[in-house]
Specification:
This protein is mainly alpha-helical. The protein is 66% helix and 9% strand.
Length: 117
Amino acid sequence: MKVEKLLNSLIKILEEEKKLIILSIKDKSYSENLLKTLEEKKKTIEKLSLLPKEDFKGFEDKLQLIKSLSEENLILALNNIQFIEDIFEAIFKEETKTYSSEGNFSKEPKSLINKKI
């Protein structure tokens, strides 16, 4: 039953993470709570990773819910990043010029958050 307890704990953590991702765009205090929740999620996942695969049989519905919540949280986090980047872009409308070997140039918006996730 250790697996079930850890899976239920992870589901609760993911639901809390979702709530905090939504609220964190409003207030810094939510961001701090989000960081604590992410650390708790990491520890729970580490515990689950130590268990043999056979222990997870019969919990496919919980695993599917965890996958679904994780995907939703990723999408929300990416949307927050895009929102913040759009704000910075509107404030600091900087453009970079890229010159080709023929002497032509093209303008590209400069991204403050230039990472692929």
